[in-house]
Amino acid sequence: MLHRKVTDPTSGYRICGQRAIALFAQEYPVDYPEVEALVQLDNNGCTFGEVPVIMRERVTGCSSIRPLGSVYYMIKVILAVLITRTKKKKKWDVGYES
């Protein structure tokens, strides 16, 4: 949908510039925001990139997403992305043109 390759949209780790912070300050996706936030950035003309990191195996605890929950997650994220993609751009300003 973004016409670009995204290898890990679900990590949730973000470093944002002023334009993205202004956008997310007005509206940031809730529940499972990782993928939807990328679509929101693209909808509003913001760019983003990926930087590879080394991920370690979880030492303690367990994922909050169980097998049935993973099906719910996939359906919810797909619907959220489709809805977000159809939203119109919002007017937002951080006091400069970029």
Question: Could you walk me through the main structural features you see in this protein, from its secondary elements to its overall organization?
Answer:
The structure is a single chain. About 40% of the residues lie in helices and about 0% in strands. The mean pLDDT is about 80. The chain is an all-alpha fold and about 100 residues long. It has three helices and no strands. It has helices spanning about 20-25, 35-45, 65-85.
Could you describe the largest sheet, including whether it forms a barrel? Answer: none
Can you give the helix content as a percent range?
40-55%
Form type: globular
Radius of gyration: 15 Å
Low-confidence stretches: none
Order of helices and strands: HHH
Element layout with pairings:
Layout: H1 18-26, H2 33-43, H3 67-86
Helix pairs in contact: 2-3
In short:
The chain is an all-alpha fold. It has helices spanning 18-26, 33-43, 67-86.
Descriptive keywords:
single chain, mainly alpha, 98 residues, 0% strand
